[in-house]
Amino acid sequence: MRVSQGQFRAGIFSGEERPAVGHRRSFASAALAGLVLVAIAAAAPESSPIPRSATSIHYAPAENLERIDVSLIDQAEREIDMAAYVLTDWPVMQALSRAARRGVKIRIYLDYGRIGQRDPSAPFMDLLDNPDIEIGLKRAGAPLMHLKSYQIDGAILRTGAANFSASGLKKQDNDLIIVDDPAAAADFKRRFEEIFAASEPLPSEAHDRRMKFFEAGAG
Description:
Blueprint: H1 5-10, H2 21-43, E1 54-60, H3 65-75, E2 79-84, H4 90-101, E3 105-110, H5 122-129, E4 133-137, E5 148-152, E6 156-160, H6 166-170, E7 174-180, H7 182-197, E8 200-201, H8 207-216
Parallel strand pairs: 2-3, 3-4
Antiparallel strand pairs: 1-7, 2-5, 4-8, 5-6, 6-7
Helix pairs in contact: 3-4, 4-5
């Protein structure tokens, strides 16, 4: 006769139904084995949790990626390292200027070939005028600097296909990926340090000299 452990522990068997001695011994052995397993599990060291990063992906034009970038930049407290193939979006540049004014250290790495294609906008000139913002260019003639990424405070990485332009953030089919993970931000920063160290400075002395620089870079 099959008897559950629950019935055995409850003591509800009559003399006829009480399991044989062999059954009782098997139940006792199983119970003892269970206690041993519990003891072993309790004594074993806990395994480290598998690190997970909180990643979110956003798509234009279904979403306004410009608002997401501005919101991220407005949250920065210490530093922003940005590598931008295109940087023409006014709200994004204005957010960078606001961040610099509240003491955030900002470095921007640009592709040389994109400079000089048009006159600099007022928000871009504000970036140049701010002594707390460092701007570097990839050397002329080198392969494209095609990143559209930045890290914030060593904690958040923004990347994806979307350029920092009005069309790239709001009209084109693009994605923007946010990785809320210090390890990912640190990986990007290590690479950024390498490429920024090899960059050329962007002249920022006088307005007329900057305009000539942009004109000279038009080719």
